[in-house]
Amino acid sequence: MRFLHTSDWHLGRSFHRVGLLDAQAAFIDHLVGTVREQRIDAVLVAGDIYDRAVPPLAAVELFDDALHRLAALGVPVVMISGNHDSARRLGVGAGLMERAGVHLRTDPGGIGTPVLLPDGHGEVACYGLPYLEPALVRDLLGAGKAGHAAVLGAAMDRVRADLATRPAGTRSVVLAHAFVSGGAASDSERDITVGGVAAVPAGVFDGVDYAALGHLHGCQAITERVRYSGSPLAYSFSEAGHRKSMWLVDLGAGGRLTAERIDCPVPRPLARIRGRLGGLLDDPGLEAAEDAWVEATLTDPVRPPEPMARLGRRFPHLLTLVFEPDRAPDDPRASYAERLGGRTDQQIAEDFIGHVRGGAPDERERALLRDALDTVRAVDTLRETAR
Q1: What does the pLDDT average to over 260-288?
Q2: Please, which residues have CB within 8 angstroms of residue 342's CB and are 6 or more apart in sequence?
Q3: Subunit structure, per the record (predicted)?
Q4: Most exposed: 17, 34, 196, 316, by fewest CB within 10 Å?
């Protein structure tokens, strides 16, 4: 059976102040064309269909168009909700859509019920695991702890229990939206940390033939059978080095697996340039950046006059300007943001307590801080899904 694995469409998202709806529509054209040309048997979409719980109307229309075009090809689609999606909104009409071959998996209670896809070698059991917010699904899944590893492990126990009832030789695929250990993150993924830990081990997917992952925006293989497709478009300058693509996966008899990358269209390349203003304006080596979306970081000791306008004359697609003067970390002129760069919420809170009190928090206090931060994140998730 031939699958096309994609994820993290983030329909409705912009890149800084540039709207991406046309580029997202071009990706959908590419997706549908690939399904037709490569004779795809099923499309797997591993979450974050939309960029926010209440997407703009134009994004909903694009999603609707994609589903109609895929259904017209007679190709089954299996998709799950991600942490950016409203599971309830995305799942509206799921029962009716199933009749057209569009299988929306947004309810954690249905994790152990697969979509069965037949081919010449038997059936492939395809399980959809929507994004699992630990505080919200711990009791439902009977997880021992309210952490990502615990709830995903409990979900996979349900998958393996159902798979054990299937005929011998039944192949299996799991869609999941999570941060798996060994994956490389970028700046555009929303933090899903719980208890100071976001990642789950790849071994949680042991026992299935392929795990189609979403959440991380870089295409990558954690293992031969556990892969991220990444987002089809870049959503932050940290993705400047990404090659945006989808996985074309062939799952043969006995679970034999091969995978290759199918490149996605690039609306405009990204460039990150850094240096003093004069050097950036004169450097012939930056010619390629003149047609790219540009993030410029100025290192002049003193902010030069009108830097955005001056850079914009050479780089007309300049989107963001960062000022990071060459200074020692302990320089009193360093900004607050510079001093906090790369630090987690937990570290910042602990440092604040130490600064105010004159002593670092003990382990009990650190645990209280972790619980408080996790509660805030869970409340934010509830608010998003309730909108």
Answers
A1: 96
A2: none
A3: Heterodimer of SbcC and SbcD.
A4: 17
